[in-house]
Each structure stands twice: as structure tokens, then as C-alpha cells.
Amino acid sequence: MKIATYNVNGVNGRLPVLLRWLEESAPDLVCLQELKAPEEKFPLQAIRDAGYHAIWHGQKSWNGVAILSRYGLPAEVTRVLPGDPEDLHSRYIEAEVEGITLGCLYLPNGNPAPGPKFDYKLRWFERFTMHAAELFASGKPVVLAGDYNVIPTEHDVYKPERWVDDALFLPETRAAFEKLLSQGWTDALRKLYPNETIYTFWDYFRNAFGRNAGLRIDHFLLSPAVDKRLKEAGVDKFVRGWEKSSDHAPVWIELKP
């Protein structure tokens, strides 16, 4: 089973890129972030024609998450992160599919920091950590995948000294990620490639992709039941080089039966 996560940065504007990648890479399950489309504008027919069923939680102009599946329609569990009924951002969707609980998330960016947006990021992170603890305690196979907007360590960013004041790299953000991992989750890419330079995002400015001046902010966290099935993981970096591509590249894991 191949599971992927991809911040598409606009599902309709970059639909040709998404469809090309789906055809070439053929993941079985896909978590998408930053749809930037209201519910009714999700390109369901094009996704179906590509061989996928889909559930999604859209929002006009911003945010938006979706889960695609080649196995049939995912059984949706929730499309709201618990803990704040007044939070209307479309940033989380969770489903059961092929015996796995799959949580797809788009954690807030948090910039500029300090400020209200950073405060919201940390509150959202705390809510997510509480929900993750419940999922972990269930003992079920769980995958939490998406754009975490967290640079975990200096090894995950080109020239870390340039990011010390950014919400993605501030000590509070990194501490929140460490707190989450301490529940027992496995960072899939770092398990398989502990010392390699791996990036999943390259800015559109200053030829960042050409210079490989990137960040690793898209992550797969696995519960023990999934961790023991982990076979391979990687980043489809080549997709970032396609015309009119997202500033993120797809990230994927492959699981043994």
C-alpha cells in the first residue's frame, strides 16, 4: 500500500499537475492540503476519472483538505478537529480506509510571530496533540499525514540561521512537535533516512528549488501498528520542477501487507 500527502496549493489551478502525478506515481491513498476551493468547487469528476474516490472539506480561497482512495469511498470519521467549536478553518479530515485510521491535516502557518496567528497555531497544535493521544491510545493502525508547517530540526532546513524568527522554526513550534512525537509516533522519513538531507517545500522566490534551498515540513507520523509495516518512504521532488507546480512536493510511504 502506497500512501501519499501533497499540499497542492490550489486544487483547481494545479489540477493538471495533480492528475499527472496521480497517473505517474499511482498512490493508493492520498491526503491533500490547501485545496483553496469551497465544497462545491472540488473537482470530483476529474478525480473519479483518475480512478479515485474522495472525501473533502473545502473552504473558499483558503485551507481545505481531502482524502483520495483507490479502494472505494473512505469512511469519514470527522472533518473537525475537536476542542474548539468556533474554529471554522478547514484543516483536518479523518477517515477509516483499508483498516487504517488516516488523519489528513494542514496545521496553521503561524506567521507573523509573535502575534494572533502564532497563538492560533499553538492552540491548534495543542488540540491536535490531544486528539492524537486518543488515537494512539486506541492501539489501532493510525497514520497522521500532511503539512505540519513545522521544521523539526536544523537538519530539516537549508541555512537554519535564516529561519530563527519564523513561526515554522521557533522553539515553541519545535517543542510542540517533540511533545507530539513523545507520545510514541514514528516520523517515517527520519526513521528510514536519519541523516539525509530531505526537503518537501521550496519557495517560489530566489530560485530556491534550483538551489535546493528547501524545508522539510510535510510529515508522516505512524502508530506502532503501522510503523512495523513501513517498507519505504520518499519525496517526489521531480514534481516540484513541473510547470505551474505547487511549492510543495508529494511525500509518500509504502507499507507491507
Automatic annotation (TrEMBL):
Keyword Metal-binding: yes
A Pfam family it matches: Exo_endo_phos
Enzyme class: hydrolase
SUPFAM superfamilies: DNase I-like
Domain Endonuclease/exonuclease/phosphatase: 4-248
Keywords on record: Hydrolase, Magnesium, Metal-binding
Needed cofactors: Mn(2+); Mg(2+)
Family per similarity comment: Belongs to the DNA repair enzymes AP/ExoA family.
Name of the protein in its database record: Exodeoxyribonuclease III
